[in-house]
Design brief:
single chain, 226 residues, alpha+beta, Sufe protein. Chain: A, 3-stranded antiparallel β-sheet, two-stranded antiparallel ribbon, 7 helices, 18% strand, elongated, binds flavin-adenine dinucleotide
């Protein structure tokens, strides 16, 4: 398969930028901030010219989403010694919360206005992907089904590209709670629950705004119990 004029911009993760030579009063500074799920504490440790450590010990952000954003963003802030880093798409509220807390903590560390301006300067570097990429399989969406498909295709010997629009892999699958839907007339019947494969099919189609592929949805609902 050929992808033409792919205009997706990707961040250069892990690019270590030259130190900004910002001056801090060394110490560990604490800020409480409202996250996506609940308030949490951000602890920032600085030495004279460096943000050394960012911790968020009591955060209750969502596993697989907000918690990933906290890890990714704090690593970026430390790698680049910069607050001019993009939010993680899909976890914007957590991203804003962390960056805001780090900024306030650095203010506690007596950063001058001029130094804060340096810290806030955009440090993101983007590069366009090549206009053409040759591969065998393109999977659009890096959630559960997309990643499973990508792994299966790779195991079958194909070259695979996964395109994910968010800054986090895993999709809804990351936050699903582990139960699996299936109609089981035998067991459910004994509990007075009226259910059927057909009902499961109809509800699944409805849940997908009736744009799902009927054959695939039938495959899911027909085989869900086994
Ligand atoms: C809170 C919650 C709890 C749940 N609990 C359960 C449960 O207990 N049991 C159960 O069976 N199901 C549960 N579900 C449903 C289940 O999670 C989903 O049915 C399943 O994860 C869907 O998998 P998927 O791979 O189709 O989609 P997803 O895992 O959502 O993956 C889709 C991916 O595609 C990406 N994407 C979309 N459009 C584009 C695009 N144009 N370009 C690039 N990427 C794109 C998305 O960002 C996402 O990463 C739950 C869902 C939620 C939200």
């Amino acid at each position: 398969m050929l992808l033409t004029k792919l205009s997706v911009a990707v961040g250069l993760a892990g690019v270590a930028l030259a130190a900004n030579a910002v001056t801090y009063t060394p110490g560990t500074y604490t800020e409480k901030v409202n996250g996506h799920n609940a308030a949490f504490t951000v602890k920032v440790t600085v030495s004279k010219n460096k943000i050394e450590k960012i911790e968020y010990p009591d955060n209750l952000e969502t596993i697989g989403v907000g918690k990933v954003a906290l890890e990714k963003l704090s690593k970026k802030i430390i790698d680049r010694q910069s607050l001019g880093v993009d939010n993680v798409t899909g976890a914007t509220i957590t991203s804003f919360a962390l960056k805001g807390a780090v900024k306030k903590a650095l203010e506690q560390a007596k950063v001058s206005k001029a130094d804060m301006a340096k810290l806030m300067k955009n440090s993101e570097k983007y590069t366009a992907l090549p206009a053409e990429i040759k591969t065998n399989v393109v999977v659009v969406g890096g959630g559960g089904s997309g990643l499973a498909s990508a792994i299966a295709a790779q195991q079958a010997g194909a070259k695979v590209i996964v395109l994910e629009k968010l800054g986090i892999l895993g999709g809804s699958t990351n936050v699903s709670e582990g139960a699996l839907n299936a109609a089981d007339p035998q067991r459910q019947g004994k509990q007075g629950i009226e259910d059927s494969i057909q009902k499961h099919y109809e509800q699944t189609m409805k849940g997908g705004h009736n744009i799902g592929n009927p054959d695939l949805v039938h495959y899911l609902t027909d085989h869900a119990l086994e």
